[in-house]
Amino acid sequence: MDIVIANESHFKYAKTICDTIAESAKVRGTGIAQRTPEYIRKRLSNGNAVIALEGDAFAGFCYIEVWEHEKFVANSGLIVHPDFRKQGLAKKIKKRIFELSREKFPDAKIFGITTGLAVMKMNYELGYKPVTFSELTDDPEFWKGCQTCKNFDVLTRTEYKMCLCTGMLHDPKAKATSKVKKKPDSKGFKRLKSIKESLFLRRKKKKIE
Ligand SMILES: CC(C)(COP(=O)(O)OP(=O)(O)OC[C@H]1O[C@@H](n2cnc3c(N)ncnc32)[C@H](O)[C@@H]1OP(=O)(O)O)[C@@H](O)C(=O)NCCC(=O)NCCS
Questions:
Q1: 79 CA distance to ligand 1 centroid (A)?
Q2: What range(s) does the N-acetyltransferase domain occupy (predicted)?
């Protein structure tokens, strides 16, 4: 498996990446923002994305976006093709994109928003902390990216204060509070997700006969 910094030679994978994201969103039934091949091609060409390939086959992808003049960078769009899941690939891609973010933008706070337990666990292991949305970028262009997520109405209803996604942030200037690395609290993350779902998702009203 090769995990490399993407470039224009990878344009041929843009549609596969979009299709894999769309299929995963359908299967998962929860929020994943949709992307167009044109959007992905831009991310492939600017030196801020990582692609995993097994020979010629697409295996995984993730990209960096820069916000507020490099005050923040987001690691977004993590996707692993179903044929390559549960083998530790997402973890490797996440680590690579995190290292690339630190190399290219050493002073930036690195963040992501996610409903995925797997992603929360990986972020936590990289030193991210869960934070409120007010600690993330307030650049409206970032939040516009949520428009294609099926839970976008939740975000607008709460005036962009919260959503089903949890915000997680790595602040390079924050001092480590403890040298003993705690394990991610998977039960806690699951509970948080189910509380948010019961708070924010409108249930279908029962039909009154
Ligand atoms: C989420 C996703 C990227 C995981 O890819 P993967 O290569 O299978 O993940 P890994 O094998 O590297 O696993 C990393 C960790 O997450 C855990 N994990 C993987 N899938 C999981 C799932 N569906 N639920 C809970 N934990 C999961 C693994 O057990 C592992 O934890 P561990 O280190 O404690 O063992 C992949 O399933 C995917 O592309 N899903 C659809 C897109 C998506 O949800 N993207 C995230 C958008 S925010």
A1: 9
A2: 1-149
